[in-house]
Amino acid sequence: MSGGGDLEIHGHVPVLGDEIVYWLQPKPHGCYVDCTLGLGGTARRILQACGPEAHLIAIDQDPHAIESAREALRPHFSNVSFCHGNFRDLSSILDTLGISQVDGFLFDLGISSAQLAEPDRGFSFQHEGPIDMRMDPSQSLTAGELVNTLPEEELANVIYEFGEERLSRRIARGIVRQRTLSPLRTTSELASVIQKSVPPAYRHGRLHPATRTFQALRIAVNNELAAITPALHNAVDRLVPGGRVCVISFHSLEDRLVKYTFRALSQPSQAKVKILTKKPCVASLEERKKNPRSRSAKLRVVEKISEGPAIQEKGHPQ
């Protein structure tokens, strides 16, 4: 398995594309759910591996991503149900579509490179833009509101818990000091305050000093971690025996949640799944060279085990 065959869409190369197809084992008449559609590159790989009779439910909370993916998936349009929503609502989305059983699920957690590249979305300190960071633009809360309104201790806790930033208290103190003079409006203003709040040696490390704080604010404003465990439980409940759930994570907070959830679901006394990846699958050296974003990617996979009498055939929307 190597990432060398990934299909590029709008300059974006899906991470671990070959590995997903290998582990998901797409079937000709299968029903699959991509819970984090993004630009649709991995979804297209799955559909191509399935053939013309497959059905893919494509979910994303970012309407911009869905519009981009529609173009990428145009050759497979009749096989795809596009859904604007969050995978925390997975059960209700599938109920609305009349889907009771699924052959496989894919979760590609975190932020996409396309979202990072859009200055107006405010995800990156490398682009001048508003401090927004909403994956779903229809939600009201922005990262700017958190930055400018959270009490100092609460802001420090967010930066420490979701960013694993050891200098969280110094950074929170610097942000609060600055916002008393004038509210922070742009990503570059925020990044500058963070840089000034940390010691000189910390400013020239492997990571930009704002990296972990921006990650923390993004996770907090989108409530990302809280959705993972219940969504994985819901996915496993919908799987046919032998069906699989594939999850790609990009940092330790996500990966830890996935690992512990899969471990709990595989306990001998009440096992629903067996773990297929004892250690997470990572990108090949070839893929890491071609796509730097893949370096931190970890893929974990479980398979649904048979339980009791046969389950009735999965439903498809009319």
TrEMBL record:
It catalyses: cytidine(1402) in 16S rRNA + S-adenosyl-L-methionine = N(4)-methylcytidine(1402) in 16S rRNA + S-adenosyl-L-homocysteine + H(+). This is Ribosomal RNA small subunit methyltransferase H. One of its GO terms (biological process) is methylation. Specifically methylates the N4 position of cytidine in position 1402 (C1402) of 16S rRNA. Residues 286-318 are annotated as: Disordered. S-adenosyl-L-methionine binds at D60, F87, D108, Q115. InterPro entries: RsmH, SAM-dep_MeTrfase_MraW_recog, SAM-dependent_MTases_sf. Its EC number is 2.1.1.199. Pfam families: Methyltransf_5. SUPFAM superfamilies: Putative methyltransferase TM0872, insert domain, S-adenosyl-L-methionine-dependent methyltransferases. NCBIfam families: 16S rRNA (cytosine(1402)-N(4))-methyltransferase RsmH. Belongs to the methyltransferase superfamily. RsmH family. One of its GO terms (molecular function) is methyltransferase activity. Keywords: Cytoplasm, Methyltransferase, rRNA processing, S-adenosyl-L-methionine, Transferase. Its main location: cytoplasm. It is found in: Cytoplasm.
